[in-house]
Structures
1.
Amino acid sequence: MLGKLYAKWMYAWETALTTRDTNRIVRPLEWGEDWLSDFVDAAHVATTPEVDRMVALNEAIVDRADEFFGYATPTDFRLEHRHPQLFPTNVRPETLEQDAELKRQAESGELSTAEFLRFTSPLRTRYPENDVVNARWYPAAAAKQAGKPKQAMIVMPQWNADAFSHNALCTLFNRFGISALRLSKPYHDIRRPAELERSDYAVSSNIGRTIAACRQAVIDIRSCLDWLEQQGYEQFGVLGTSLGSCYSFIAAAHDPRLRVCAFNHASTWFGDVVWTGQSTRHIRAAFEEERLTQADVRRIFTSISPMSYMDRFAAQPKRVLVVHATYDLTFIREFSLDVLKNFDRLGIDYVSKVLPCGHYTTGETPYKYMDGWYLGSFVHGAFKKLAQEQAVVGGSLEGQLTR
């Protein structure tokens, strides 16, 4: 009885959090093939029904994934100092007040500047502001890094995150001697086009643009790894929440440098989340208006679904954490359990943690502290083991050379 009451209360709370924003827009369905022009077979553009054509395009992307997620290392890496800004994605009074206060503090000199890695994304879009990658840089103190390989995490927050989301995790990693790049996803915070209130172009009813946004995010993660290597870093991990976990998974599947992976809410099929999630109801509405089904939506987003790259992910050794929530109405529990089932099938080394809350309530007290403990302790332990392994290998090589 108590369990049922708790579940009812949690679902009500979760629903309240997912419906409080009033600026979600139902946009018309667009196939968006122009966003994927280098993979479109022109011979089939006019002759194939739209759904079948988009399915075939996704299949081509999966078959040529190395090319799709391939890139040339940027040549304009730079560090900039500026005042942090919130870049809110909602119009609630308390959020707007927080944004105004930060701007006031910056103007009065009360707010310190922060360091940001900036570079031009190897994948260009039609939005110049989106194509300048932004990652707040949290370098660990030299004393904390002494005596071990230089280690760094790339942190990818959730869809529609403001620019302060997940910053506390980065400072936590610094305490362990692990540096962090808190990466702004495509169309988020400073990369968001001026025409938008929310980060709608990252996930929308424009299918091609949504796929291209994932492509850009994966390439941006890999480019950040290149910069970190240039700074002498040797061991790398990635942490992604919600949409960020999807991007992070695909990046790790295509880049063996990512040895520590923390997925904070995870799912197998991108389209299933879009169709069933509370936070994407407005996108589903656009698809339903054109009589698409859940099966259709799964197939037209195959190329950005973690399930499409599960075998590739398993091919390289990694330490993995998966956190899911029992009462999640955005990444439904059955989809997270499907991730674990596939990890078991493929023999992936992973740890599973369960939160007694939902997707949005993960950010509320006390659940955010539980989540932070799971993420922080895992990342600390995983990097500690990586350092020990490298020391053992280094010692063995030294012994062979001195014989």
2.
Amino acid sequence: MVGSKHEAMHRLFQRHPDVFGRAFDALNLPFPKPNTVALLPNDLTEIEPLERRVDTLLRVDTNEGPFLLLVEAQSRDDKRKPSASAYYLAHVHAKYDLHPVLLVVCQDAATAAWAARPQHIGPRQWASLVVRPLVLGPHNGRPVTDLQEAVSDIPLATLSAITHANDPGIGDILKTLATALQKSTRTTH
């Protein structure tokens, strides 16, 4: 139940929203003096269904405890991604009560560099949320061209082909993967 102290604090901000600026002046925080402050509706309920789908969502259990892994494919920079990523992470954290990790898989170094930048949500003086995706791409994913390695780990060899799809050496990676698949198919029959 909401108590009187809680309600009084909110009423103060609702009736005197300009107190925000004066409070930060007194604390020497890096916000500029507000010219105006407007009270907005506080109901954040979604009236219309909002479709939000992460590409893949996995629960990973380890000896140190479980976590969630959200896997997204990214082929180019997209200015809408920071807010979508923040939404995904906050939503799954609230829904499953587990810490999430966002993994972004890229096929070119430029997109990987863009995706790896911390995504700050909030004004430049004080980011309230920072999304730090883990990025896998041609810049840090090792190309699998060793046949024995590919045979012993077809999924890793496949991921190598995906992350290096735009690399000049993709032919060698694909040849290794195709040969590994042929060998693995022969041994299972």
3.
Amino acid sequence: MTHRVGFRCDAGVASGVGHLMRCVALAEELCGRGAEVLFLGDVAGSAWAESQLRQRAFPLCPAPSEPRALAELVRVLGLDAVVLDSYVLAPGTGAALRAAGTAVLAIVDGDPLGQEADLYLDQNLGAELRPFRHSGQAADGPWGGRLAGARYVLLRDSVLLMRGTARRRPARPEGPLVLCFFGGTDSAGVAPAWAGALRATGLPFRATVVSPVSFEVDGPVTVIPPTDRLPGLMAEANLVITAAGSAVWELLHLGVPTALSWVADNQLIGYEALVGGGLAAGLGPAPDAAAVGVLARLLADPAAREEYGRRGAGLIDGRGRERVADALLALL
């Protein structure tokens, strides 16, 4: 029997593409097992995000926001299960789908925001050690099981294929190779400021900055648009500067030295766990003098950089999506 699974998530300039990318990773796994997948939602304003579905031949269908209307669409489409990954869905969405007989997996970051599901996934580091918080609904409500922690991190094919096939370039006299990016859309518009922070260190480096909006900056900085080459750029970099979003798990899997900021409140939980655990350098929320000092230390000290990469390597084994797919398909 061929199962049909829908992914209810959105992506765009304001919302970023992190939700979409982790759903794409799980969709790739399910497709590899013979399931049919389609995406329900809005992917607009980012040509790169739209291309991620088009390249994989994943259909995209507009989705109504009202829970019962979405449940009716799911019935018409003949979906056996729906994966919810959004902070802005109506709280009754999962309940409406379940009432209609559809299995629901909710991907969350800590608080499920009142969303009912048969199964919850929280792939944040240390999530298995934290209590499962429920807001907007009684704690004794109809909550399902939970998959929590780094064992369940969802990684794309392009990242899994990169591990072990690319090596970081040795730092040259002109300085270490730095990659700077903040998601597929840089929704907070912070890439130019962090490029400036690199310049403010006064140390040699070569940097590639990924930004959907081109800008000019003095020094050895190349600005490129969002690209499918990102996993390769990660694997080659001596240091990556990014926010504590979903790309962090890709960097840990590849063992890349990383310096983290955060651009949204929901990223703070991951930031604190990774920086507190010594798995990444902490830059704080803004490219201020303290952050410039951290960058200067990392640029000047190869051993300090490599220690972060060493600590992170092996934490994410790349089989998280297999485990999640096993649990989801067991519901059907």
4.
Amino acid sequence: MVVPSAAAQAWPWGADGSGDGDRSAEIISVSSPSGRLQEVSPPGSVQQLQAALSSHTPRLELISPSDGTLLKTGEVQLTLRIQDWPLAEDPQLGLGAHVALQIDDDPPLRFAHADDDRLQITLPGLRPGSHRFTAYAAMPWGEAVKSQGASLQWRLDVLQRLRGTQPDQDAPWIVVVSPSDLSSSEPLLIDWLIWNAPLQNLREGDGSWRLRISVNGDSFLVDRQEALWLKASGTGNGSVQMELLDGLGDPITPVFNNQLRATTTRSGVRPIWMQSKLSDEQMARLLGVAVPEREEPPERGAPPPQSELNPDSETETDSATGRSLQDDPSAPIHSPEAPTTEESTMEKQSMDPRPEQNDSSPPAITADDELQVLSDQSAADKDESMEAGKADKAVPERSIRTAEPTGEAEKLRITSSLGGSARELVNEDGTQR
């Protein structure tokens, strides 16, 4: 007897194999936010920080206590190692890159200080029973880093293990990353982690899981672990629900994978990363690097620095007026090698003791008298020249240039040892009789 073969039933991932025959085996499709939900780009500051942190590959490691440890008391000293992640926290700007720790479904604890890449965390008193832990490297706005090694999960039992209170060791379960305490206004960050989720989308129709996200009642389906920024219509308080489903749309152990979070619009200053742009100083403070020094502009009205007078410089400056003598057309031109006109005139008068003669006939002077007169005149000229040189050095050049002659130069009185008829021809002032 030949019995016709029946179509094979494709049991969905996570089902117990007892589905009914009327159940559709069609994999449900993903969908995008629509209606009152709109997916938008991250704020400009978020994009700046993402680009700056993209060069880091954080790695988390559990040091103690190890996964599955049975604790005798709820007081636990937890030690984690974080590598290649610039932990930072600014007193005014808030958290920078940090590490988040979530215990069961409680709100995350955030840490931004490490000692030699180690985080020493004293946990609050754990109640007896079994607990699951999730730790991940987080952006300043709370988003979890999705690269390999940037997150980890483990379990601890206090006094004894309670079966059925936590997902099985290899079962999938969801961690709601955001909305969280860092979310305060639109656009709203939606982020999550799914543990033990099998690979999918390797070929068409191999969908193993879906995540249904509902924001204020409007729902859509996703199949990737990528954060979303959403803008929802309406104001005030709202809610975000996340449900982990299998490929056919059925819930997977909803006691652990159906999470609800409240969203509250808080008044006050928006977080720094919600701005459209960050300055270089703000970026440095949020990334935990040295703040670049700013050059202070000179004070208004401050005089420019004066350089010392160079002795070799051709330009002189009047100490009283601060003006350049070379630039002053009214100042007399003075050169050490070319004496001024006034000086030349005075010197000429002092060097030429002979006045204008009314009689053109020369006086009758003997050879001996002429030699004596020339000797006395040369000595007098030499003494007067030396005295004039000393006076030039003693009197400042400025006084020499600006002083006006007070009268005619004193005529040189010539003494002579002439005698006889030659002496009677010369007056006392040197003029001819």
